[in-house]
Amino acid sequence: MNEAINLNRLRDPAFTEEVEAHSGQKVSTCYQCGNCTAGCPAGFVYDMQVNQIMRAVQLGLKDAVLDSRSIWMCLSCSTCSQRCPNNIDVAGVMETLRHMARKEGRVAVPKVEKFWFSFLDTVRTFGRTHEIGTMALYMMRSLRVFTDVDLAPEALKKGKLGLKPHILPGGAGPVTRIFTRYKERAKREGVRP
Amino acid sequence: MNFAYYPGCSARGSSKDYEMSTQAVCKALDMRLVDIPDWNCCGSTPAHAVDTELSAALCVRNLDIAAQQKAEVLLTPCPSCLSNLRMAAKRMENPAFRSRVDELLDGPSAKEFPPVTSVMQGIAAQMDMGAITARVRQSLKGLKLVAYYGCLMSRPAEVMNFGDPENPTLMEEMMSACGAEMLDFPLKTACCGASFGIPERPMTAKNSGRILELATRLGADAIVVACPLCQMNLDLRQDQASAAMDTKFRMPVLYFTQMMGIAFDLPEKELGLNKLCVSADGLIRKLGELRREEAAKPAEQKAKAAEGGR
Known about the structure:
The structure holds 2 protein chains of 2 kinds.
Chain A: H1 7-10, H2 13-23, H3 35-39, H4 50-59, H5 62-66, H6 70-73, H7 79-83, H8 90-103, H9 110-126, H10 131-142, H11 152-157, H12 173-188
Helix pairs in contact in A: 2-8, 9-10, 9-12
Chain B: E1 2-5, H1 16-28, E2 32-35, H2 44-50, H3 52-68, E3 74-76, H4 79-91, H5 95-104, E4 116-118, H6 119-126, H7 129-135, E5 144-148, H8 157-160, H9 170-177, E6 181-182, H10 201-217, E7 222-225, H11 228-234, H12 238-245, E8 253-255, H13 256-263, H14 268-271, H15 281-296, H16 299-309
Parallel strand pairs in B: 1-2, 1-3, 3-4, 5-6, 5-7, 7-8
Helix pairs in contact in B: 1-13, 2-3, 3-4, 3-5, 10-12
């Protein structure tokens, strides 16, 4: 993060406004105290620390922010929001940035998104989460076939992994329809669902 | 008394023991938990990480069912479900948001939803700590425990409404009411690494490792939790956390309901203790020895101990 940034070329002032409008947060009030970064449990895997992200949003550095790995690695624990002296919901801003990046098809850490959709696809199909199904889909999509195989024997022995999915008593229809309408609307609005 | 209940998906899978012990403890306290019919997944983190309106639609379908049941309050054991359901209800106060969410549902949602609260707060609202102490049959006196809340129970503060967002104390109060000695635990609201155990193992292993390390160094007999994902990360993934910290942890991680069940002397079978990966057998043995020692003391000391312990 120490290379020179040519601000005139890279700044997109509309981006700052867009982030503030979508998140409902005044990012402009951030004065770089660093409390968010100091308390962040995910900072050790970030490429830009969360205070740097806040500064980059103020400067309108859209590409740097939306292509960062950090917005995908955020744990949503809200420690940053809790400790912000200016009452910025920093975790909310991170989530907004992730939504904006996704809608544009910018996915800096695909394995994280693959995990989310492996989870959500079981919800769409059965109406409730299916833990083994989520794992199987994730292994297939990420090609990381040995993910957590060390845990499987113990989890199975303890009867903690339901082999059969739990389908809603009346069928998963109402939940499947939520996902269908969500996808159709995203398509109509020209964004990536 | 009956309570509308949203178990959440993990109650049917990875946190069966939380569900069993929740049911057993609530029954012992005369609280009957009745599942709302046809409930669906709240979407958990993946849904809100992907889209706020999708997440809200999944939650609102459940809130709607609870509203149709005319529930006064909806209880859930899972902090992630609780957080999602509450966030959705709050966002639905915005008419523009509401109409976008209603578009995703089969029909318009109820105008008002019943409030949602955690089983832990539900118990505390029903009875004071003295009533919990009165139900204790086997005091936890002599056990040193740490209460670990994780991120979601107290944050965001204005939605979760759970006391000091970085120093909640309800679990300590409940465990103390059962006789346990509660150690100060500075990482009580730190993050365990949440669902990143699957896509990014070091994230969860290191964060959970830090929590296990501190609890071990403080000399805790067990960590007491209230969240299925925290429990899984600290218990099922304890060997992964050990590897990340270059050590070998051996720390039992029990749900607060399992610990209360032990204090109420409910059958172990009903508490799902056999589902813990790091066995609680040592803890149960220690507790048995403590109580036997106490019983063997001369009568006058015994009277004193009973007074202090219960």
